[in-house]
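Backbone Fold Data
Goal — C-alpha cells
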Amino acid sequence: MLDTIVVGSGLAGSAFALKMLEEGAEVMVFENGSQRASKVAAGLYNPVVLKRFNMTWQGQLLMQTSLPYYRKYEAILGLQLLEELRIFRRLASVEEQNTWVTASDQPGLSEFLNPKCLPNTNPHIDAPFGFGELQGCGRLHTTAFLTAFRKLMKDSACFREERFDHKQLQINGDTLSYKDIKARHIVFCEGFGMRQNPYFSYLPLQGTKGEYLIIEAPDLKEPAAIKAGMFLLPLGDDRYQFGATYNWKDQNPEPGKAAREELLLKLEKLISCDYKIVEQTAGIRPTVADRRPLAGRHPEHHNLYTLNGFGSRGVLLAPYASQALFDLIHKGENLPPEMDISRFEKHYAKTTKS
C-alpha cells in the first residue's frame, strides 16, 4: 500500500512528492499536462510586493525556507536551478524615488532593498527616474526543475502520465482505492484544474490567466530583470521574456490576440530598440482572493487533502507549504491558519445544504 497519491506535478505537487520521498514514504504522482501555469512562469523569487514596496505574507520566512530547499535539489539532481539575478523596479517619479528610499529603511525590507536609487544606463530602456534594486533575489529555472523531477519519478516508477478520474476514487475508511492502487492519503495539487474536483470545488479558487511574449532583441543588452508594470526578464542569447498579463475573465488556456496587443503596447513603452516576437505563451494561475494558499484536509474525508492557490508566488510558497502539509498529515501539527482551508468551511456547508 502506498502512503500517498499526488495528483498534479506543478510546483506544489513536485515539492510535496519530493518531501514524501525524502521521508522514505511511497508515493505515486498523476499528471496529464493540462495545467501549464508552473511551466510558463517566469520563476522569479523575491519577497517584496514591488507595486506597493511592502513585504509579502511570510516573505522572510519563505526566503529562508525555499532557497535552501532548491539548493539541496540542485545537488541531488545535478542541475543549476537557482540563478542570482539583479532585479530592478523602474521608478516612475521623484515621489516613488522617495518612497523607495523610505521603504528600504523599514525592518525586514532593508535586507532586500538597496537604499540607493540607481540611474538608468541603458539607452534602449525608458526609465528617466532610474531604478530601485532588489538584493538577494533571482530566478528558479522552473522548466528544468519540473522536467528533472518528472524524470526522477519516472525512473522510480512513481509517475503516471494520465488523467486522474475522480469518479474512480473509492474512500473506504482509512484506505483509498484508485484503479489498481491502494493508499492511505491523496493530495490534490491540480492548480486551476481543482475547479473540476468534486471534493474541493467548493473552495473559492480563481483562475487568473497570464500571458507572456518571448522576444529577440540583439541591441537591448540588458542583464537585469526589470519590473515596469510587467517584467522584462533576460533569457540569454538576446532573448527576453516579457509579461505577464492578468485576466480574471478569460479561462481559455491558449494565447490570445487581445493579450498580445496589451503586451506589445506596454513593451514598446519600455524599450526603444528593434525586436522580433519568437513566441507567445499562456497559463492560468490558481489564485485566491485573500492571496493565501489553499492547504489542508477535506472537511468530511480525513484522508483527502489539497495543496493549491499559490498564484504568482509559487516558487517561494511551494517548499514552505508542502512542508507544512506534510507536518499536518504525518505529525498532526496545525497548519498556519492563514493558509488552512478550514477558513472556508462555510463554503462547504453551503454546498452540502444545496
